Structure to design on (579 residues):
């Protein structure tokens, strides 16, 4: 336990000192404020909670930015330590490989949490303070999107470790991480959209599509949040799909956690075979 | 003597390449052993086998009775790799403290380790600003924290200036005096004179020498070089008598086998006034090392 805490603490220290936390917070804050500014126009004409409308946009922002930040945090975790020679030092001590990975996971998730809480928290507070039509519902929506963003981020931190333990060079791990982001966040959705266009009323759209959404943690995150934010459904591109799901949309949040467990298990198994 | 490190007939292959061929090497508590060899001779491979990072393809290794890589063995071993780059934004104290926690060592040991390597004053500065020597000492500080039973140091003095090197070996000596077995790798013999108790030489994965420096010198049986100063009149006579080469018109230099040394000196003294001075030079440590690590050296001529 002491070793896990030491590893996590070191990752947090590095995250703060190399200005990762600051940079990621600013990126999230700037994008969140931009969306708040753009989203304030339609909310004025509706009775929806002003903050909830912004939160709906934030959940879409999270799908793109949070996995990217998480992967950029984690791709270097093992490959970088092999490159710098510090992994052999760490593994020469009595700490187990599972502990090394879990310690890093705790540290990286903490770094990500700081960025998401600062970025979205400050943006949410500003919208709440400036909005005329804000209330408790909006605050709950904001907290939900922050917490689920952390779950999504933690999942991609773990997925980043799979990339990091699979190769020995940091550069290759970085390329792998970018490819994972591109596939899960951009290409996967494009492929689903293509499938929907090709068979709008067929087996794909009615039976396969809802489950394919679950298969991708980023899409599952979007399904969960869009369904949860009543006021946000109009703003969501996938809102139409949410009504016809063959499962409770609340269950979609299980997907990132399942992927997190799979990715952590897989990366630990690969790390056990790595020669530092 | 209690053997801390025991390796017997260890072999390791990388595809077709035999990186270690039947290496047997023991290191006792408090003993300082230098492992020498060219790049690719198998030094780092042997370290990685001892650390449990690589499995052997033959033979066995034990660290204080434990198998390499086991939790108990890792508790007893400390390692300093040849090149390590600590996170630049962390301070020296944070880095040593990190490894102390991984080794479950008391936090009070951190300051002691930093003090020992003369880094107490710079301990709270980010290590990104440390010089090469300071970084090397920081690496050593993390290795000595927790009083390990066996220390593996992979070319710890590479890149250090002569003064830092001297201080490094003094520190190693102090650590060994407290009972730690030390196995350190190096490129050259000359820097190791009087610094280690024993020298082991690896050549293409084979242990070709294992003994004290004096034993190695005896075993190599390299000729001694004798230089006889004569005068312009008698130099030709001296040259005819002993052979070798003429130098500077008045001197003659020749090799002499170690057992023949006294006979040759007596022959020189019989030349009387034809000889004005005699210099005898033993083979240098680098020559001894070159002898054991040369490609055509006979295997198995262990000291």
């Amino acid at each position: 336990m002491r070793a896990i805490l030491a590893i996590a603490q070191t990752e947090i220290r590095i995250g703060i000192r190399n200005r990762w936390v600051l940079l990621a917070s600013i990126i999230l804050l700037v994008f969140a404020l931009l969306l708040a500014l753009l989203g304030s126009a339609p909310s004025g004409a509706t009775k929806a909670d002003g903050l909830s409308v912004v939160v709906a946009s934030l959940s879409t922002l999270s799908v793109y930015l949070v996995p990217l930040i998480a992967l950029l945090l984690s791709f270097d975790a093992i490959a970088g330590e092999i490159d710098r020679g510090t992994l052999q030092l760490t593994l020469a001590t009595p700490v187990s490989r599972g502990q090394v990975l879990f310690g890093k996971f705790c540290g990286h998730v903490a770094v990500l949490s700081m960025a998401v809480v600062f970025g979205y928290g400050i943006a949410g507070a500003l919208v709440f303070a400036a909005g005329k039509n804000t209330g408790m519902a909006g605050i709950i929506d904001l907290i939900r999107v922050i917490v689920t963003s952390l779950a999504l981020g933690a999942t991609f931190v773990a997925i980043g470790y799979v990339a990091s333990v699979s190769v020995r060079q940091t550069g290759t791990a970085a390329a792998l991480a970018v490819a994972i982001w591109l596939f899960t966040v951009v290409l996967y959705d494009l492929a689903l959209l293509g499938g929907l266009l090709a068979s709008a009323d067929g087996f794909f759209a009615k039976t396969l599509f809802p489950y394919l959404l679950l298969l991708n943690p980023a899409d599952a995150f979007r399904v969960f949040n869009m369904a949860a934010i009543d006021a946000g459904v109009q703003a969501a591109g996938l809102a139409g799909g949410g009504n016809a799901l063959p499962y409770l949309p609340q269950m979609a949040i299980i997907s990132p956690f399942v992927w997190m467990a799979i990715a952590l298990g897989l990366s630990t198994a690969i790390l056990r075979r790595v020669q530092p | 003597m209690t053997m801390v490190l025991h390796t017997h007939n260890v072999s390791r292959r990388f595809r077709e390449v035999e990186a270690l061929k039947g290496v047997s090497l023991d290191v006792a508590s408090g003993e300082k052993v230098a492992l020498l060899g060219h790049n690719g001779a198998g030094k780092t491979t042997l370290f990685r086998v001892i650390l449990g990072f690589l499995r052997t393809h033959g033979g066995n290794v034990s660290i204080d009775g434990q198998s390499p890589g086991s939790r108990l063995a890792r508790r007893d071993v400390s390692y300093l790799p040849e090149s390590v780059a600590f996170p630049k934004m962390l301070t020296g104290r944070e880095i040593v403290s990190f490894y102390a926690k991984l080794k479950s060592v008391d936090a009070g040991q951190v300051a002691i380790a930093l003090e020992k390597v003369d880094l107490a004053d710079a301990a709270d500065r980010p290590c990104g600003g440390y010089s090469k020597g300071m970084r090397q000492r920081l690496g050593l500080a993390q290795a000595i924290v927790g009083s390990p039973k066996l220390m593996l140091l992979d070319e710890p003095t590479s890149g250090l200036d002569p003064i830092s090197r001297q201080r490094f070996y003094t520190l190693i000596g102090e650590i060994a005096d407290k009972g730690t077995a030390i196995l350190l790798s190096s490129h050259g013999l000359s820097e190791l004179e009087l610094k280690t108790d024993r020298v082991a030489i690896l050549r293409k994965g084979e242990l070709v020498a294992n003994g004290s420096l004096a034993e190695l010198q005896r075993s190599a049986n390299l000729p001694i070089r004798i230089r006889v100063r004569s005068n312009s009149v008698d130099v030709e006579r001296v040259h005819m008598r002993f052979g070798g080469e003429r130098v500077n018109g008045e001197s003659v230099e020749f090799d002499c086998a170690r057992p023949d040394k006294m006979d040759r000196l007596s022959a020189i003294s019989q030349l009387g006034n034809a000889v004005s001075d005699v210099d005898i030079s033993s083979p240098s440590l680098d020559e001894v090392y070159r002898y054991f690590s040369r490609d055509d050296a006979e295997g198995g001529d262990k000291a």
